[in-house]
Amino acid sequence: MALLQFMTCGLPTSAVPASIHCDHLIQALDGADADLKRSIASNKEVFDFLESAAKKYGIEFWKPGSGIIHQIVLENYAAPGMLMLGTDSHTPNAGGLGMLAIGVGGADAVDAMTGTPWELKAPRVIGIHLKGQLSGWATPKDLILHIAGKLTVRGGTGAILEYHGPGVHAQSCTGLATIANMGAELGATTSTFPYTEAMRNYLIATGRAPVARAADEAKKKGFLERDEGAEWDDLVEIDLSTLEPTINGPFTPDLATPLSKFGSFIKEQGWKDELTAGLIGSCTNSSYEDMSRVTSLAKQAKVAGLKAKVPFLCTPGSEQIRATIERDGFTEVLQDVGAVVLANACGPCIGQWKREEYKGEENAILTSFNRNFKARNDANSKTMNFLSSPEIVTAMAFAGRLSFNPMTDSLTDANGKPFKFEPPTGIQLPEAGFTSGDLTYAPTPLPTPQPDTEVQISPESTRLEVLEAFPKEFPNSRGMELPPLTTLMRVRGKCTTDHISAAGPWLKFKGHLSNISENTLITAVNDEGGEVNVTFDHSSASSEASKDTIPAIGKRFKARKQPWALVVDENYGEGSAREHAAMQPRFLGCLLIVARSFARIHETNLKKQGIVPLWFAEKSDYGLIDSGDVIETEGLADVLAGSTDAQITLKVTKKDGSKVEIPTRHTMSADQIKWVKAGSALNFIKEQKAAASL
Question: What is the value of pTM for the model shown?
Fold first, then answer.
């Protein structure tokens, strides 16, 4: 979608180096070779579009099968002290190399690609001081799972997490990347670390010795570490030596339970003590070090004559990791104990898992992923995904029980004797160096734009669609206020970008806004009645049902040219950076969303698409607006005129004719106000480029 938006700007190339990664459309089913071959065939038109656009605009193109964007970025692009934007919420993974890597929506990326100033509200800084050392079964993943439980999914919103202290220097570069990756689950803008010896070693091992030398020189001059006397808005102290393995979930990444208490937790909840699948890898935990440690456990199990009792799936993060662990014998050991190695892609972590078992049934899986919202992995809302380290996932796969604690419990080996795992061991970097694997996946560095290239989009395609500009909404019959808006619904509780724009099978429509809009809010809960994917049309014609799915009512409003508003709960839009969650409501006619609170990336995405996001001044006012109520803004005109501190009040006319006034607040900057006035950020960019050409 970022490319489709960039194409509307009429520029010959990107103003900054850019790359394209094909990691979201490879579905896991049979194993790496078969899955990749099938996915390339079934997604050919999308991959052809991406490759042709990359060729036209001079963008580096990583072919399907090359790996997950975040692992590739860490191996090839990330550098200490760098600032990078990425169109995925887990872009902060690159912070493992001591940089600021920030996840954004595609429209924000277009800012950078068009040379338009990119802005971010100055974040708070939360200092996280690490002392001590991890030992035994404890890993960097357990640290960030522990922090998620401590700070919650909202605790990092609007903040950078700055790790410091001696404990940082005891971690591998890829371990730091794991920590930074899951900072997104706290709502953090990004996470970063001082430059360390482990980062230097990783840069050299991945063929970037000149970058390491430059970082060494910068550090000598006092850069790449916290300033003397630095202060934080908040400070968290953690002693790594006290941490034990932690398991988070289900259905939210901040419900943290220490491994020693997890069995009791399962029993207290009345859940079946059964594991139905174990999945390791993904962008969070697929480093060489991760794979070496799980292989050490698999070797122990192999000697004991054990095989995994449940499906055990392994996703390498990149072709480089796949090739290196295969060369060093890790893959063979894992396969010998029952693991299925999947393609180098996101796979089950983002819902690309063609799972035939347990459809509609409650079941539990254990993964080393970063996110565990309902229905995210296998489209089954009853699948409970518990997040943990790859080491714990691996050990539990041999037990098949959620209550199994490999630190204390034993299994029975092939000879009927007790078998207990020794703590995992591993190495940070391969002794023989990395091997690149299949080089045909990689792009030509810094390719020259080929402007005569035709971008491949078929007019008959159901997968790709040329974007049409969203209309300007100002001025209208109410001048520079929003027109009267009908409330579509009041959303109850957690509503992530997965709820707003589901992934899984819907990902095939990411390039076709009309078609993907059919999934808008289909897993959201309506606070009026508690039903999922249900809302009301209080002005329905006699031939129309007054109650229907959310997309159906949204399309009905759009056909009537009736703009609408949405009322939502806390941390609306947490999770993935997917801007479809902002574009789809806008496409269907939404102009206003009023929330108890917003997640950072999503709130910005809404502004980029011309939707006005407002916060209830009093959170209790959330319940005062029902579906069918008509909302009019008062004070927005003053904000749009430049009085950014002006109060915006909602004048609500209830269905019975009574009226209520609700005070709100906003976070729109002067530049963001320009996007709203123009109908979208893209519209504003085009206006600016047109004016500059006169």
Answer: 0.89
Q: Which residue has the tokens 């009792």?
A: 309
DSSP one-letter code for 186: G
The tokens describing 11, both together, are 């520029």
- Give the separation between CA 123 and CA 159, rounded to whole angstroms: 5
**Residue 200 known to be catalytic:** no
- What are phi and psi for residue 366, nearest 5 degrees? -120, 130
Catalytic-labelled residue, pool 164, 371, 580, 602? 371
Read off the pLDDT of each residue in 478-485 and give the average, rounded to a whole number. Answer: 98
Task: Tell me which of 24, 70, 376, 556 is the catalytic residue.
Answer: 24
Nearest alpha-carbon partner for 322 in 31, 29, 18, 20: 31
Collapsed DSSP state (helix, strand, coil) of residue 195: coil
The verdict on whether 23 is a catalytic residue reads yes
Distances (CA, A) of 173 to 176, 316, 425, 618: 5, 17, 17, 44
Catalytic site residue from 35, 66, 70, 88:
88
Q: What pLDDT, in 10s, does the model give residues 202-221?
A: 999 999 999 999 999 999 99
Q: Is 600 a catalytic residue?
A: no
Name the pairing type of β-strands 612-616 and 590-595.
parallel
Active site residue 88: yes
| Helix, strand, coil percent content, the chain, rounded in steps of 5 | 35, 20, 45
DSSP at 157: B
24-63 pLDDT, tens digit per residue, is 999 999 999 999 999 999 999 999 999 999 999 999 999 9
Identify whether 24 is a catalytic site residue. yes
Give me the mean pLDDT over the 503-519 stretch. 92
CA separation for the pair 412, 355 (Å, rounded): 29
325 torsion bin: left (phi>0), alpha (psi -120 to 50), beta (else): alpha
CA distance 212 to 200: 5
pLDDT tens string 251-307: 999 999 999 999 999 999 999 999 999 999 989 999 999 999 999 999 999 999 999
How far CA 380 is from CA of 236, 276, 360, in Å, comes to 37, 13, 6
End-to-end Cα distance, the chain? 29
List, as one string, the DSSP characters of 339-389: EEE--SS-GGGGT-B---TTTTS-EEEEES-S---TTTTTS-TTEEEEE--
**Is 693 a residue whose pLDDT tops 80?**
no
Q: Please say if the pLDDT value at position 694 is more than 80.
A: no
Side-chain-facing half-sphere of 526: CA atoms under 13 Å? 18
Pick the catalytic residue from 191, 292, 576, 680. Answer: 576
User: Which residues 6+ apart lie within 8 Å of 657 measured at CB?
Assistant: none
Angle (deg, nearest 10), helices 600-608 and 580-588: 40
234 catalytic per annotation? no
Q: Which of 680, 481, 479 has the alpha carbon at shortest distance from 587?
A: 680
